[in-house]
Amino acid sequence: LLDTVEKSAYADNTIVVLWSDHGMHMGEKENIEKFTLWERSTRVPLIISAPGLMQPGIRCDQPVSLMDLYPTLVELAGFDQPSHLDGRSLVTQLKNPNTETRPVISSYKFNWAEDKVTGHAVRSMRYRYIYYPEIGLEELYDHQVDPNEWNNIAYKASNTSIIDDHRKILLDMLPELSWD
Fold it and tell me: How many helices (H) and strands (E) in the chain?
């Protein structure tokens, strides 16, 4: 597809964005579904090709959100950013994939037993923090040493400041949250 676009008369004004659905657990953590807030269920492929911004094949490993797509396309098309957007443009990362992004948030409403439980995950470059407000459960995974998220380190005293930093990120986006 990209080869065809590059050979066409539209090569200098065509933006291609490819993304897909998120993954599915195939028995990991005793799950055979995709309704979790772990990395396997929230990570999606995302490829952006925009004329003149990047070298082919460059990879950015920063966490981003699909909410960032609209602001990115608005900027690439040369329009002003609407003030109501939650996402942020990824043009800076397209120009320099090492530019750090802010952490991103995923949320999901679970049906556990007869209760509705909301969960929120914060994915920073190194960590994934998950919080379930209705039940007070927290999870923290260090992707530098545990990329498969097997070891919940949220309740280790040495991680208090990491938890506090990720809680602040959640509170900035969702000020109605509280910790008892």
Answer: 5, 6
Q: In what order do the strands lie in the sheet with 104-112?
A: 104-112, 115-123, 127-132, 137-142
Burial class (CB in 10 A: 0-12, 13-18, 19+), 150: exposed
At 37 the pLDDT is: 85
d(CA 88, CA 31): 32
Closest CA to 141 of 29, 32, 59: 29
| DSSP-derived secondary structure letter, 51 | T
Render 139-157 in DSSP notation, one character per residue.
Answer: EEEETTT-TT-----TT-G
For residue 141, the one-letter residue type is Y
pLDDT in tens, 97-110: 888 888 999 888 87
Distance of CA 162 to the CA centre of its chain: 18
Which of the pair, 30 or 2, is modelled with greater confidence?
2
116-135 residue pLDDT tens? 778 999 999 999 999 988 88
- In one-letter notation, the amino acid at residue 135 is I
Is 130 strand, coil or helix? strand
- Altogether, the residues listed in the chain come to a count of 180
Q: Which amino acid is at 108?
A: Y
